[in-house]
Write a structure and sequence with these properties.
It is a single chain. By secondary structure, the protein is of the alpha+beta class. It folds into three domains: 2-80; 83-132; 136-192, Head domain of nucleotide exchange factor GrpE (Nucleotide Exchange Factor Grpe, Chain A, domain 2). 64% of the residues lie in helices and 18% in strands. The chain is elongated.
């Protein structure tokens, strides 16, 4: 494209020279020469402006690409380390499990081991409830709720007015009110 502009510039300069040679009087040729010079100056100005705009556009494109790459890296790191705080919270209960096992091996104390494991379970549930919004689904003895529970077994029983959970096979949990694992239960049905 620059070559084409240079050719046009040369043609204009040749035309300018021809006009000057043809008009010996000076007045008309001088006006045309001044007009041609103005046009050439304007072309030079436009070429300079075009070059500056191209440079600016390339710089902006490079900045945009760098910003996109930085966002992707930040997103990857956010996903990679999303659970870092939770893992840090679970390190203390993990240490307590290790201590309980070590103590049980040294003392052969079943009651002490049972007590230690119960304390660690309470600590885990407390951390998950307080810091992470985890809540167990209270199911046993409650009316059966299929949005929070899965019936693994059913049995007819007298004295029931509605389907009621008789036994919990596996505890269910909610995270900030959303069921993340349904409770696996045995359901008592009223006798017909």
């Amino acid at each position: 494209m620059d070559k084409k502009k240079e050719e046009e510039k040369e043609i204009i300069e040749e035309d300018l020279d021809q006009v000057v040679e043809q008009d010996a009087s000076g007045d008309t040729g001088k006006e045309e020469k001044d007009d041609s010079k103005e046009l050439l100056d304007r072309i030079d100005g436009l070429e300079k402006e075009l070059s500056e705009l191209k440079d600016k556009m390339l710089r902006q494109a490079a900045e945009t690409e760098n910003y996109r790459k930085r966002l992707l890296k930040d997103k990857e790191n956010a996903v990679k380390f999303a659970n870092e705080a939770m893992v840090k919270d679970l390190l203390d209960p993990l240490d307590n499990f290790s201590r309980a096992i070590r103590s049980a091996n040294e003392n052969k104390d079943f009651d002490g081991l049972k007590s230690g494991i119960s304390m660690v379970e309470d600590q885990l549930l407390s951390i998950l409830r307080t810091n992470w919004g985890l809540e167990p689904i209270d199911a046993e003895g409650k009316p059966f709720d299929p949005s929070e529970m899965e019936a693994y077994a059913a049995e007819e029983q007298e004295g029931l007015e509605e389907e009621t959970v008789l036994m919990v096979f596996q505890q269910g949990y909610k995270l900030h009110g959303k069921v993340i694992r349904s409770a696996k239960v045995k359901v008592g049905k009223p006798k017909a």
